[in-house]
Amino acid sequence: MAVNGKRLRDYGLKSERVLWPGKGPGVFETEVAALEERLMLTTLDRAVAWAQTRSMWPDTFGLACCAIEMMSIVSSRYDIARFGMEAFRASPRQADLLIISGRVVHKMAEPLRQIYDQMLEPKWVIAMGACASSGGMFNNYTTLQGVDKIVPVDIHVPGCPPRPEALMEGIVRLHEKIQAGVPPAYEIRGVAE
Amino acid sequence: MFETIPGVVETIEANGETTLVVDPAQLVEACLHLRDALGFNFLSDLSSVDYLGWAEEPVAGYWGDSGGRDLNAPGTAALARLPKPKPKRFAVNYHLLRVGPVAREARRVRVQIWLDDGEAAPSVVAVWPTADWHEREAWDMMGIRFDGHPNLVRILMADDWAGHPLRKDYPIGGEPVRFSDAK
Amino acid sequence: MAVTVPRIYEGTRIPSPIPTVLEVPEELRRSADLLEVNFGPNHPSTHGVLRLVVQLDGERVVGLRAVIGYLHTGFEKSMEQKTWWKAIPYAPRMDYLAFQANELAFVMAVEKLLGIEVPPKAVWMRTLLCELNRIHSHLVWLGTSALELGAMSPFWYTFRERDRILDLFELVTGARMHTRYFQVGGLADDIPRGFFPQCREFCEVMPKAVDDYEAMLDQNPIWLARTRGVGLLSADDAIALGQSGPVLRASGVDWDLRKVEPYLAYGDVAFDVPVKENGDVWDRYKVHMDEMRESVRIVEQTLEGMPPGAWIADDRKVVLPPRGELHTSMESLIHHFKLVTEGFRVPEGEVYVAVESARGELGCYICSDGGPRPWRIRFRAPSFVALQATATCMGKALVADMIAVVGSLDTVLGEVDR
Q: How many domains does chain A have?
């Protein structure tokens, strides 16, 4: 992935995040912090990114089984409200994040693209689950083999369905990307082939 | 009990289920008789099956062979045999149920009609209104027309879709998978 | 209640000529100012990707048409491409709330054609898991339906209990949803230690939780106004429209496949079937609540009565041998190889098996040509049929009632569209 023409790796981001409690701040976190310096984000940029990540409102785009796991991160055990994201907006005009949870079929592809187009920039897309990321187990005449064929995707979350914790991991990584200064997916890449 | 139904060509008892093969031209009569005289007031399911390509490749008989599960019967092991041929290409099965105080054995029956490609079946929406969407799905997925259906349009696929996906000559579609020669 | 066979549809509220479409009456079409509104596939209150095209005369719904197919994933055709064993993971993803009922229907149908006997422990464990799944499905239904009618609190409470059930599933099967635990011949693996105490704890908590949900809703005047007398469906219309499950029982028909055609261990456990009379949204809500209580009773009884023994049938032509045997027995090695590469062959024939899922009669029709792959698999989805009743239930209701009606029919679009 490229930012201003250079890959993040060239800016110094080399490691994967290691989820070992009691070991942190890990190498990844320190690298992200250093990256913010190197990308020379202004204080204003950083403040805007901080604000964007702290109240990113998802759009209610639950399609199939993954939608049920998405509903359970709203519930009290996994509690997405601690990220300020429990306000799922029904209108795409008021939403920042599109969590495509479930299999997208060709008949639904047009409404999906319409919803995506109606969202105001900046907007991010999480392809939740195997079906949204790549078509999942449904490699057939009717299922879109990955929503990145029609919308640019920031984060793919694997799983069938992903555990709520896995979706949270995807959301947290999205927050970290935004805070590191990575632009939304529509600026750096288009849709897949 | 089933002798009084008009249009029954054959009665098959298998796997604990009764199948009545009915002549398509007399289907509505038979269904009305089943509903009114015999009490089958509930249409559970309407399944259409495409038998294109049936019995073209022999099925080897070693594992739970197609003739039955008795591996000790002489001559059954490892012999390839063809499944029994079917009369026409399409079968439409109506699974009927009697909702009410009836003995368990007499509660379900399957009515089966056989159709060629392009042949239309009479619609049973007037007999059981629940057949509306089932018949639309059979039209959409298999291309079987139902004469007398008030609204026979596509239901699952997009309105301008070409082809009938569940037919055996319709490809599975999707993307080719690398490193795999599976169909 | 005795059911009369509907002969002449006098007094029926099923619209005509198309039973599933509410047509705008002639006089309104010319005179009134009608507004056509699209409750599009992406709507927070339509329980999935359902599209309703309605014509409104003010607030009154005078025309209604449902458009489905926005989640048609081609299950039936995909399953035809796989072997019988590898087709099992497709089944739970159709009705993604009562997922084990789908697996059960498919696996029971294959076992019926194969003619293999499932050991009692597997039968009782399947019963237990199906009932837990029924509670799970009703909890999600209650949480989301109440949310759509404006009652936000029950959502948090029902999802708290739902997470407890998913913890139980994860303990037994390794996965929260889409467990794929039912194998042809029994279960995939033995029941782990620690399941029975945790399940008993859950059974102690659950009845009190159901009482809590009712305490939140039953006396609420808004809830009563929005559900009583709304979405009426008579018994005759329900049978004519093929309704089953809670919708049929709320309309006054005492019909539950677990009682009339007992399968698994339902013949050996004692439970009641809640039946109400009016057929409105309130009655469907009450049937769901009572069913949750009855399901807890069944779970307690299966916990007490769980027989010991094998968890899967012994038929090596269908069931994988235990891995320990592969080192010592040549036949086991060959069986394992043949089963994994080619799959077991199911004798030629066709069979229809119906189970009582949380939504109604879930039927699985399979047709085998004697080979390792299915020839045709068809699922009779109860939600597909339930949605057909929307037009009948609506009558001359208001827009707000439409949300209550669609919610009370408890449809899951995954199985509607398959």
A: 1
Of C73, C177, C413, the CB nearest to A69: C177
Q: d(Cα B97, Cα C197) in Å, to the nearest integer? A: 41
Residue B68: pLDDT band with limits 50, 70, 90: very low
Partners of residue C77 in chain A, C-beta under 8 Å = 140-141
Question: Residue C121: inside a domain, yes or no?
Answer: yes
* Residue that wins the pLDDT comparison between C59 and B182: C59
B17, B55, B158 ranked by CB distance to C351: nearest: B17
Is B166's CB within 8 Å of C68's CB? no
Residues of chain B with Cβ-Cβ distance to A140 below 8 Å are 172-174
DSSP state of A143: B
> What string of H, E and C letters represents the secondary structure of C163-222?
HHHHHHHHHHHCCCCCCCCEECCEECCCCCCCHHHHHHHHHHHHHHHHHHHHHHHCCCHH
What is the sign, positive or negative, of the torsion defined by CA atoms of C135, C259, C360, C415?
Answer: positive
- Which are the contacts of C298, defined by CB distance < 8 A and separation ≥ 6? C127, C128, C131, C266, C269, C271
- Using a CB–CB cutoff of 8 Å, tell me whether A116 touches chain C: no
Instruction: Give the pTM.
Output: 0.88
Q: Provide the β-strand partners of residue C362.
A: C355
Half-sphere exposure of B36 (CA within 13 A, CB side): 12
Separation of alpha carbons A32 and A38, rounded Å:
10
The string of DSSP letters for B88-136 reads SSEEEEEEEE--SS--GGGSEEEEEEEE-TT--EE--TTT-TTHHHHHH
Report residue C215 as tokens.
């305490």
- Quick one: pLDDT at residue A178? 86
CATH number for the domain spanning C204: value is 1.10.645.10
Which is it for strands C35-39 and B80-81: parallel, antiparallel or unpaired? Answer: unpaired
Maximum separation of any 2 CA atoms in chain B, in Å: 59
Is C384 in Cβ contact with B129 (below 8 Å)?
Answer: no
Which CATH number does the domain housing residue A68 bear?
3.40.50.12280
Does some domain include residue A144? yes
Neighbours of C168 (CB within 10 A): 21
Number of domains chain C contains: 1
Task: Tell me whether residue A130 is in a domain.
Answer: yes
Specify whether the CB–CB gap between C177 and A68 falls below 8 A: yes
| Separation between Cα atoms, residue C256 and residue A61, nearest integer Å | 34
Q: Which tens digits make up the pLDDT trace of A14-69?
A: 555 555 555 555 666 676 677 666 666 567 878 888 888 888 999 878 888 889 99
Residue from A133, A140, A143, A144 whose CB has the most chain B CBs within 10 Å, to mutate: A140
Determine the structural domain holding residue A118 and report its residue range: 56-175+184-188
Confidence (pLDDT) at A7:
60
DSSP A13: -
Q: Is residue C85 part of a domain?
A: yes
- Is A153 part of any domain? yes
Better-scored residue on pLDDT, A30 or C412? C412
Q: Is residue C70 part of a domain?
A: no
Chains touching chain B through at least 3 C-beta pairs below 8 angstroms are: A, C
Q: Is the dihedral of CA B141, B147, B153, B156 positive or negative?
A: negative
Using a CB-CB cut-off of 8 Å, the residues of chain C touching A137 are: 78, 89-90, 93
Q: Do A139 and B177 touch (CB under 8 A)?
A: yes
User: Tokens at residue C368, please?
Assistant: 């085998």
Question: In this structure, which amino acid lies at residue C278?
Answer: N
Contact A112, A100 (CB under 8 A): yes
Burial of C42 (0-12, 13-18, 19+ CB in 10 A): buried
In this prediction, the answer to ipTM > 0.95 reads no
Would A33 be classed as within a structural domain?
no
Residue in chain A nearest B166 by alpha carbon:
A141
Residues C336-375 have pLDDT tens digits of 888 888 888 888 889 999 999 999 999 999 998 878 889 9
